[in-house]
């Protein structure tokens, strides 16, 4: 594993069910995430995904890739174009840094301590870029 | 500085929440509902000794349908009241930065303190004019002084801009092109091939433009092509379309040309000769429509604020 390595893309169909289930599971009852009429009254063409669901999908994309030893340490995301029903969000990721936990040195893989990996992620939909950001994940004893 | 902005900015540094408490202790039911919603199958979040997925942090702190969060400050209520009164009634989240120091486990009672970090001047955005509000929250669990997580959150409070009402128009399906739309419904792109002179044609027509023969057979095309020409539509507004958007004439690998919207890229990122591939989407959540998505690095797009 090294900076520049890419994660396989993940296509996420943006269904109404996903938008509503994600909003309710995160206890976000803002009407724009479940009520199309209310969303239109506020200038959106339809309901759209809440940021917590996007956060969850991005986190899951990264931990799915690195497996059961992976633990999320930091996530910083910025939203752009909304995820509306019927769209498909394609998540892509690129490893930007790999270092042993705590010492901040690149490529220290010898001692088996958890590695910290930074992944730059982008999620695009038909309107453009829905989300961009950086995820830091630790990998227990898997620095190679 | 406007009068209003001066009054809004005065709330910077004021608390948004003091010793607030999550409505429910961390619990396996909410963890499971969340994992099912976002499709998270990480084994750490399943079973008796599950820990909460870090990314669901806000699920433990949001007030939910009941509202009335204990510990929410008067300052935040006043700030939102000022924004409401000035017409900035709608809200959308734009940024979320979180750091997780230790896992939240079932039984943990989440507590948090939050401060209004900044209020932006009024900005023009695609949604309408508005102010960005940034808060920073420290999350702990009852009885433990060490931080569990930190959370910086930026929202836009905006005055909704008017837009063209209504739904995207449906394709006109008739006897001559029904086969094409039946193919699209199956997520297949179909042209016609003349049974006599073998010429491939698109759009669909009852007769061959080359030899005049009315006999033809459906021919599936790959959907790969290049942008032959395109326009960026800014105006006039049309129901179901969010300007600016791209209408491209795509030359397919098989030689015929097809019109479609380009998806997954900012209009400024589209260029003649750009390689694209068909992608089927249901923009109203109903009928499949063909779009074209650039093939290659996802970085062709830029953030749309
Ligand atoms: Zn012919």
UniProtKB/TrEMBL annotation, chain A:
InterPro entries: HotDog_dom_sf, MaoC-like_dom. CDD domains: SAV4209. Pfam families: MaoC_dehydratas. Residues 10-97 form the MaoC-like domain. Belongs to the enoyl-CoA hydratase/isomerase family. This is Acyl dehydratase.
UniProtKB/TrEMBL annotation, chain B:
Residues 20-142 form the FAS1-like dehydratase domain. Residues 220-281 form the ChsH2 C-terminal OB-fold domain. It comes from the Bacteria. InterPro entries: ChsH2_C (IPR002878), ChsH2_Znr (IPR022002), FAS1-like_DH_region (IPR039569), HotDog_dom_sf (IPR029069), NA-bd_OB-fold (IPR012340), Thioester_dehydratase-like (IPR052513). Pfam families: FAS1_DH_region, OB_ChsH2_C, zf-ChsH2. Residues 181-216 form the ChsH2 rubredoxin-like zinc ribbon domain. This is Putative OB-fold protein. The lineage of its organism: Bacteria, Bacillati, Actinomycetota, Actinomycetes, Kitasatosporales.
